[in-house]
Structure formats: C-alpha cells, structure tokens
Design goal:
The chain is an alpha/beta fold. The chain has helices at 26-36, 62-70, 73-79, 101-105, 117-128, 174-180, 243-246, 249-259, 267-276, 303-306, 315-332, 336-355, 370-383, and strands spanning 17-21, 40-45, 56-59, 85-89, 95-99, 113-116, 133-136, 140-145, 150-154, 159-162, 164-167, 187-200, 208-214, 217-223, 229-237, 281-288, 294-295, 298-300. It has a 7-stranded mixed β-sheet with strand order 5-4-13-14-15-12-16, with helices on both faces. Strands 7-2-1-11-18-17 form a 6-stranded mixed β-sheet, sandwiched between helices. Strands 8-9-10 form a 3-stranded antiparallel β-sheet. Helix 1 (26-36) runs parallel beside helix 5, helix 2 (62-70) crosses helix 11 (315-332) and helix 11 packs antiparallel against helix 12 (336-355).
Length: 407
C-alpha cells in the first residue's frame, strides 16, 4: 500500500476553522499538520491541563516517520525507555525466561521507540501550543451541522461556529456517540479486562519488566527507569465485558481483587496497592470498528475511529499516522466530503492490518488455558536463543504522502 506523488494546496485552505476534541495524541498531532496547512485550529480538552504520566506506549514503523517529519524524533529518542529485559515468571514466581523486550513486543531494536505516554503528549503539545488555540477544562456538549458549518455549544456555555469538527477523544469518544450512536454498536470486545496503576518500587527493579502468568491471568511490574515508582498491570480473561464495573471504580477494584484472590508471586501486594492507588485506570481490551469515520462535516481520528487495543501495541502509532493522513486529505481536497473519503480510502487497509494483529497471535502473551500457556512458554524459551525481532509488516505498510512545505 503505497501513496506517492501527492502534494498539498495551502492557498485554498488558509482560513478554514477546525475544532478538534481531545488533546492526547491524535488531537495535537492533527492540530500540528492542519496549522501547517493553513487552517485555523482550536483544540478543546475536558481535562484541566495536559495529562502527564501514563503507561509507556510504543511508536513504530510508519509512525516513526510521522514524528520525524514533525521534528520531534530526537526528543523522543532521548525519552526512549530502552528496557534491558523482560522476565517471565511461573505461577510460583520462579523464573521461566528472560528475553529482550523487543522480541516479544514486535518492535525493532534501534528503530522503534517506547516512551512514557506523557512524554509523547508533552512533545506534541510543545509543537503547537503557540500556534493553535487550546481550551482546557471544557468539552463539546452539542453539535448542530448545516451544509456550510457546524455550530458548537461547549459545556462551559460558550457557543462557536466552525467549518469542520474532528473527534480525537479516545475509545469512549463522546463525539462519536453524539454523531453515530452508542459505543456498543462499534465496540469489538476481545475477552480481557485490565487495571493499570502505579505503586512503590520496593523490588529494586530498573529498566525492566517482570510478568507473572497463570491461565487467564497476568500480572506485570514495569520499571521504566531507576525511579522509586513502578507501573503495575493486572490483566485477566473475562468472557463478557463487566459493563457495571466500567462505570464504578469501587466495583472495578472488587472485581480485580476477586479474580486475583489466592494468586502467587507479588500479586497480593499489587492488589493491595491497587486498592490505595489514586491513578487506577480500568478498562476492557477492545477495538472500535466502524463502517465510516465521518458524517457531514464531522470526522473521527485515532482511537475514536479505529482503536486497535493495547494487545496490538499500535494505538499511539495509528493515532499519529491517522492524524497525518486526515490532515493531508483536508489540505489536498478543498471539499470536505472528498477529503474524508480520501482519508478513509488511503488509511483503512493500514488500520485493518494493524487491528488484525490481535487475531494473529498478539494475545498469546496472555493465554487463557493450560495448553496455550505451555505453548507460549515454549515460544519464550526459544526466544532466549533467537535474534532480535524483525519489523512486523503491518507496522510499516503505509508510505506517507508528502506534505507541501510550510508557506
């Protein structure tokens, strides 16, 4: 899938007003490219400030080229976590295998990056904060489209008019729900739930991951540096999504504690730390699959349109690539209908390939049966003596079209 020979026409897009909902990854990336193409951009974010911290994320394949073109690759290379090892443990806590993290993550050592989510968000924000308008501590309440524009009412009560609106507000997108309907119509549940939180590093871990498994359950401790804090991860198989728990933090904690009751290794201490954590993030592993990513003058980008799930490791990369491709389509096509059609046409195969990674074995890191666990363990033992991974084709299956130089 190669796109060549495209250029942008900056002169025809100079004053189009675009509102982007969401200031995480795809939102600021889209804002950067739209501003470069001459659009007047506003970003609204419901949080009161840029969100720091967060679990480490990957930037791979085509997304590396996006951040290179944005000029932030050196900063992200400096922020690269560069974990030294990933140690897998048996049910009793004994060591099963210790491997190069890239060998199991599907990344290419020396090319792909892993950074704290907050580091990526901060670098993206720094590229656009002086050039586009940010409205923190606010959100879209209603959208009223006409043939010529979109009237927006914000939660703050402010009312404004834009030519286009883009939902970059994540997997549980309010923009998508208001435009296309309930999330259940587009959510593909993958059979897992997970909890992420931070806890004290009382284990002396440094730049490494330790993962414990039994059938249907996994617990991991991730030290991204020499800090006194760890990222903790509890993942478990659940045949049906626990819809009630998704809306109730206390129910989330109770569910996780019940699932991991009696578990070995350091899991009891992790569960206790989860009870006290003030940064607990609980969700299901799932994908967003939609027949269309736009309606009228409103489009979706990133997880709002095509979340691939953490099992693929491609969420942030798809967000970066999707933002680039949407901006390029809008810069190339004056008519928004043609632009949105080009965006979908040129990106959909890339999205499908990356979403399919979970169908092609990524979930084998979290086996649900004794037999599958033994098969995975055999694979891990073999990896110890194997060379580093090569790139997965899905990560780099799209060649980016060229943006015209900034006028």
């Amino acid at each position: 899938m190669t796109l060549n020979g495209l250029s942008t026409d900056v002169s025809t897009t100079a004053k189009r007003r675009v509102l982007i909902s969401g200031a995480s990854i795809s939102g600021p990336a889209l804002a950067y490219w739209l501003h470069r193409a001459g659009f007047a951009v506003t970003v609204v974010e419901k949080a009161g400030a840029l969100r720091a911290g967060g679990y480490p994320i990957d930037i791979r394949g085509t997304a590396i080229e996006v951040v290179r073109r944005m000029g932030i690759l050196p900063q992200l290379q400096d922020a690269h976590i560069d974990s030294s090892r990933c140690t897998f443990l048996n049910a009793d806590g004994s060591k099963l295998a210790s491997v190069n993290p890239s060998a199991v993550a599907g990344s290419v050592e020396g090319q792909d990056l892993e950074v704290r989510r907050g580091d990526l968000a901060a670098n993206l924000y720094a590229t656009v904060r002086d050039d586009v308008e940010f409205l923190f501590d606010d959100s879209i309440d209603t959208l009223d489209q006409s043939e010529q524009e979109v009237d927006v009412t914000f939660h703050s009560g402010q009312r404004r008019t834009f030519d286009l609106v883009v939902g970059a507000d994540g997997m549980h997108s309010h923009t998508r729900e208001s435009l296309f309907g309930p999330e259940e119509q587009f959510h593909r549940y993958l059979g897992y739930c997970f909890a992420i939180f931070t806890m004290p590093n009382t284990f002396g871990l440094s730049r490494e991951v330790m993962m414990w498994n039994t059938p249907g359950k996994a617990a991991a401790l991730y030290a991204v540096g020499n800090d006194d804090e760890l990222h903790a991860f509890l993942n478990f198989h659940q045949p049906e999504p626990p819809l009630d728990a998704l809306r109730n933090p206390d129910a989330q904690r109770d569910l996780v504690a019940t699932v991991f009751a009696g578990a070995g290794w350091e899991v009891p201490g992790m569960v206790d730390a989860m009870r006290d954590a003030d940064d607990l993030f609980f969700d299901t592993a799932g994908q967003i699959r939609m027949p269309h990513w736009s309606s009228g003058r409103v489009a979706l980008v990133g997880d709002a349109a095509y979340a691939p799930s953490f099992l693929t490791g491609q969420g942030s990369s798809l967000a970066l690539v999707g933002a680039y491709m949407l901006a390029h389509a809008l810069a190339t096509n004056r008519d928004h209908t043609a632009a949105f059609a080009a965006y979908e046409r040129d990106l959909r195969d890339f999205v499908a390939m990356n979403q399919a990674l979970v169908d092609n074995g990524s979930a084998t890191l979290f086996p649900t049966t004794e037999r599958a666990l033994e098969q995975r363990n055999t694979m891990l033992r073999d990896l110890v003596t194997m060379p580093s991974a090569t790139a997965r084709p899905a990560h780099s299956a799209l060649t980016l079209p060229e943006f015209a130089p900034t006028p």
